[in-house]
Amino acid sequence: MEHVDWRAKGFWWPGPPVSLAQFAAARHGLFDGAFTWPVLVARNGALAHNIDTLARFCARHEIELAPHGKTTMAPALWARQLRAGAVAVTVATANQLLACHALGVRRVLLANELLDPVPLRWLAREIEQGFDVLCFVDSAAGVQAMLDAGGRFRVLVELGFPGGRSGCRSLDSLVALARAVDAAPMLELAGVAAYDGGLPDAAAAARFLDGVRKAVLELADLLPDEVVVSAGGSSFFDVVADRLAGQWLPGHRLRVVLRSGAYVSHDDGLYHERTPFRRLPDEGSLRAALEIWAQVTSVPEPGLAIVGMGKRDVSYDAGLPIPRSVRTLDGETRPADGLSVTAINDHHAYVSGSGLKPGELIGFGISHPCTAFDKWQLIPVVDDDYVVTDLLRTYF
Q1: In CATH, what class is 106-260?
Q2: CA pair distance 182, 64, nearest whole angstrom
């Protein structure tokens, strides 16, 4: 969708299509008639703050950032992250890799083992033309799939943990896989990758990342002069910096690459509770950038309001939406004190609390941005006065 028209969810635009640039240039107010409800917005000040905060964190700790693009699939945000110093964009799937290529992102980490022969053959050709991609591998099948594709691939062997979503489950199996990569024609062993985000706490992440460091040391004789070590989601990037930053591999230059993604918008739920800046308050903070505005459609009984917002509009897998403010019928705004979401259907939310009237709007924070961005093809970016300054186009 490259225009605003009747297809744009959350927009009220029954007339002729206008370009995204034209719509943004008009500087519509969120509550002035160009939108209907529900609508997800991104607060520009919070986005800018978060991008700058993690860029500064990485610079202080001498680590690099390749933010996980699958969180937003919004090239406008990727561009802002790259301008702030990110070295690449991380993706999870072949389709996301293709989107990066089509949208002009030239350096990518593919943080999953790719086994599909057709995308692999395409990737082999594009690498020959200068597309800079690091591929993860955690099995002999992954090595063979790349060999069958016939291209030159730079590879990170991935270490995992029992019950985790990917990665070799032991140091011995990782070493064996690394030796298989090293012995394979056309493949280059570039380093080691890991994902710590599925671990329960910082102590468990520290133990796991100590194992990653041990694995890198074990593979020193196979690794090139410049070694990539990549880890990190948005819950333990402080532990990644503590355990992996620095030049601790004799005879090699280390590049530690963080892959955090959700930090860019943060949230009012999951990552509000799990952000590393709770452990490191002197290092900075993140701000929730996403809000979804929805209308009270019914107050059928005391203490219960039905709001026109549901599972098709807002994330609910890691916590229900959080009421933050109420816009009254006369346009005044007040805190959403005493309100809470108790349940959510496809298109309705059940809000417990008193004082709401049909037609009023509630601004909700969200929990887990990765399952909020994917529900919206166009997301208005608003300033502190809720004037639209830009539109984010997502590509899920």
Answers
A1: alpha beta
A2: 25
- Location of each CATH 3.20.20.10 domain in the chain: 106-260
**At a CB cut-off of 8 Å and minimum separation 6, what does 209 contact?**
194, 196, 231, 239, 240, 243, 244
Mean pLDDT, range 48-56, rounded to an integer: 98
Give the Cα separation of 149 and 362 in Å (integer).
52
Q: Measure the CA–CA gap between 73 and 393, rounded to whole angstroms.
A: 8
- In 3-state terms the chain splits into helix, strand, coil percentages (rounded to 5) of 30, 30, 40
* % the chain with pLDDT above 70: 100
Dihedral sign for Cα atoms in the order 107, 47, 267, 2: negative
Cα angle for residues 164, 166, 169 (degrees, 5° grid): 70
Phi, psi torsion values for 360, nearest 5 degrees = -70, 160
Cα–Cα distance for residue pair 227/250, rounded to 1 Å = 11
Angle, CA of 322, 282 and 84, to the nearest 5°: 75
* Residue intervals in the chain for CATH 2.40.37.20: 3-44+286-393
Calpha distance 112→178 (Å, rounded): 16
Whether the predicted model's global pTM rises above the 0.85 cut: yes
Three-state secondary structure call for residue 334: strand
d(CA 203, CA 238): 12
**CA gap 166, 143 in Å, rounded:** 15
At 288-347, the pLDDT tens digits run: 999 999 999 999 999 999 999 999 999 999 999 999 999 999 999 999 999 999 999 999
Q: Report CA dihedral (164, 169, 174, 177) to the nearest 10 degrees.
A: -90
pLDDT for residue 1? 72
The pLDDT of 37-41, averaged and rounded, is 98
- What pLDDT is attached to residue 48? 98
Q: Which CATH architecture has domain 3-44+286-393?
A: Beta Barrel (2.40)
Q: Does the pLDDT of residue 19 top 90, yes or no?
A: yes
Residue 232: pLDDT over 90: no
| Residue 242: partners with Cβ closer than 8 Å, 6 or more residues away | 206
